[in-house]
Amino acid sequence: MKQKIFQGTAASLCVGLLVALLLFALVFDIKNTESAKRSLEQTASAMALRYTPTEDADAAARAFSNAAKGLRVTIIAADGTVLGDSETDYKTMENHAQREEIKAAQAARVGISVRASATLSQKMIYAAVRTQNGDYVRTAGVYGGFLQSVTMLLPWLFVAAGIALFM
Question: φ and ψ at 118, to 5 degrees?
């Protein structure tokens, strides 16, 4: 009888901990995503203020990326033509006029999106900021998403489960 009560209690604790982990991971993911968006937007805004259209855009993208500790930086003309990129050869890149973040920046000076990168085949967070001359400076960071949040919290779930079972 005691064995069945213990097993039922242990199972309930495990299910409760799993549900708590998932809810906590969801909240953590939302907060982490918002923080990443704000950070990328601030970085892109600072770069947009420093960017001059007379300089070599590809060199500027690489310099901005180095200063931003490796964030991907793309400089895009008002018509969507890629002028420079810190990760790949900008001459081979397609027109970016229809990208979500660029369309949003056309309307509101700043545009943010979370989507898969066509170039890097990874889910990324993008922030594009329109410069004074109408070009765009776009920053991008890798987006781990919900599964990354769960993975980060998994060790804590095991610790909590161990404590719960010990008690």
Answer: -70, -30
